[in-house]
């Protein structure tokens, strides 16, 4: 049986969009650091080419033989790498905001967390398929007994990512993926609700324990409080209004870039907010930069591509008789969905901004290679699904 060619073509199309905008959007960074004008374009093109080759090669493997080794390999190797990177010498690790997130290799750096997410999804799929039985109704105490080891593992993940790498956004995505996969694996809605509650409490504790995160929340609230408070009773305003909230500089320019793009955009290369106003326009704010240049219509076309891709992934999941394949494909679709939504909501000020890469579109080798590997594994699974 052959792999799902439509999923492959959709992935290549989205990767092609990222290559185009890697030439257009980083112009300010190129000028500021005196890079060659094709610096980001060449690097992104190479990464995308390697990613497409990897995706195709993985899709050709036999899932009954290679799937387990690849999944467990990513899980254990990246878990160990995230633990060791904090004791590696500074020459081998790249820091961002005081957090060690990238391991330096000859010519490039890799973020283990991006690849760990794939291994984490596989581990959950493999373990849930063995331990959670959909046909037998259990008491809540029995379900909690089954899920306790996963919660302990997740606390380790929280420590390695949220504490050691100061990256709460990735933890939120993994938490949402964990509880949703557990629900589809056969747990009850009570456990799902408890999982969401626990994740919310952990997120709250992580926020109040960090001055940096509190500042981000205040900045976001300062941008939306007028609209929200206008819908609430006047008596609430004195309690909820924050007078000293820092100006949401990046979000304001992100919203202005989207507005400036209007329906059909200013044209490829003609955006102005990428000229120093949006410092991460080719990474975290790539959707705002794209919206300014090709407009709302262009963004809608990209959203359609994403939705079609997710439809193919969830279709493969639904039609996979093997429960591990079913849950893994579901997990990959969830990770892509949650990442895209968190970034989209962040740049439009619906939620606080978190440094989450847009799958397929953001500049960066680790995120591109990781999403290509995950799609390659889903393509491998698709050969066994009744499409």
From TrEMBL:
It is found in: Membrane. The chain crosses the membrane at residues 7-32, 38-57, 69-88, 108-125, 146-162, 168-184, 191-210, 294-314, 326-348, 360-381. Its EC number is 2.4.99.28. One of its GO terms (cellular component) is cell division site. Pfam families: FTSW_RODA_SPOVE. It catalyses: [GlcNAc-(1->4)-Mur2Ac(oyl-L-Ala-gamma-D-Glu-L-Lys-D-Ala-D-Ala)](n)-di-trans,octa-cis-undecaprenyl diphosphate + beta-D-GlcNAc-(1->4)-Mur2Ac(oyl-L-Ala-gamma-D-Glu-L-Lys-D-Ala-D-Ala)-di-trans,octa-cis-undecaprenyl diphosphate = [GlcNAc-(1->4)-Mur2Ac(oyl-L-Ala-gamma-D-Glu-L-Lys-D-Ala-D-Ala)](n+1)-di-trans,octa-cis-undecaprenyl diphosphate + di-trans,octa-cis-undecaprenyl diphosphate + H(+). Keywords: Cell cycle, Cell division, Cell shape, Glycosyltransferase, Membrane, Peptidoglycan synthesis, Transferase, Transmembrane, Transmembrane helix. It comes from the Bacteria. InterPro entries: FtsW/RodA (IPR001182). One of its GO terms (biological process) is cell division. It is a multi-pass membrane protein. Belongs to the SEDS family. FtsW subfamily. This is Probable peptidoglycan glycosyltransferase FtsW.
């Amino acid at each position: 049986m052959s792999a799902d060619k439509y999923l492959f073509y959709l992935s290549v199309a989205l990767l092609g969009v990222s290559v185009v905008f890697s030439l257009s959007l980083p112009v300010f960074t190129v000028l500021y650091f005196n890079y060659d004008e094709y610096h980001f374009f060449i690097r992104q093109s190479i990464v995308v080419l390697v990613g497409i080759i990897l995706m195709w090669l993985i899709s050709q493997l036999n899932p009954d033989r290679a799937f387990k080794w690849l999944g467990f390999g990513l899980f254990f190797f990246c878990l160990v790498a995230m633990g060791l990177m904090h004791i590696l010498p500074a020459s081998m690790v790249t820091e961002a905001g005081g957090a060690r997130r990238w391991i330096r290799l000859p010519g490039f750096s890799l973020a283990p967390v991006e690849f760990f997410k794939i291994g984490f999804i596989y581990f959950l799929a493999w373990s849930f398929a063995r331990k959670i039985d959909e046909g037998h109704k259990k008491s809540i105490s029995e379900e909690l007994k089954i899920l306790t080891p996963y919660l302990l593992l997740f606390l380790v993940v929280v420590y390695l990512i949220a504490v050691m790498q100061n990256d709460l956004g990735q933890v939120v995505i993994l938490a949402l993926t964990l509880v949703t996969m557990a629900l589809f694996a056969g747990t009850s809605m009570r456990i799902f609700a408890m999982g969401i509650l626990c994740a919310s409490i952990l997120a709250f504790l992580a926020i109040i324990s960090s001055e940096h995160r509190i500042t981000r929340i205040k900045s976001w609230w300062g941008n939306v409080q007028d609209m929200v408070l206008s819908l609430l009773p006047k008596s609430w305003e004195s309690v909820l209004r924050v007078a000293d909230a820092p100006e949401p500089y990046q979000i304001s320019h992100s919203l202005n870039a989207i507005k400036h793009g209007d329906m059909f955009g200013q044209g490829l290369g003609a955006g102005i907010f990428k000229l120093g106003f949006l410092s991460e326009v080719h990474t975290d704010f790539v959707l705002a930069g794209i919206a300014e240049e090709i407009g709302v219509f262009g963004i809608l076309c990209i959203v359609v591509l994403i939705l079609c891709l997710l439809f193919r992934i969830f279709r493969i999941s639904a039609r996979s008789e093997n429960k591990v394949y079913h849950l893994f494909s579901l997990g990959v679709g969830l990770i892509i969905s949650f990442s895209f939504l968190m970034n989209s909501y962040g740049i439009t000020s619906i939620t606080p901004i978190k440094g989450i890469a847009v799958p397929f579109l953001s500049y960066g080798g680790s995120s591109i290679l990781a999403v290509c590997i995950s799609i390659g594994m889903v393509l491998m699974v698709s050969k066994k699904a009744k499409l």
